[in-house]
Amino acid sequence: MSMRALYGAILCLALAAAGCGGFDCGDAGKCANDVGPSTTQKASCDARTGDPACGSKYEDYASCYLDNEQCTANGDSDVGATNAACAESLAVVEACCQANPTSAACGF
Fold this sequence. Notes:
The chain has five helices and no strands. By secondary structure, the protein is mainly α.
């Protein structure tokens, strides 16, 4: 998975999910500028988390991201800082995507 695709997925995740301790593809993130997902974004997120090969690993990462989401001073999700907090679960998703490149969880 390319880093550009990964950051795109993270941005989508930040827009598609919210709350501590849980993951829901239909909610907005917790930073001030996060907005709720469109119907298409929610469907895409649901397909990623529902994928049999890597979906559960993606959902674990998404939950970590939400539990540890950090916001910039201007109200956007701080992807780098949040990913640093979730490095272990992110590595698990990346490994799964390398082994299963056609997984819906990896095809952003």
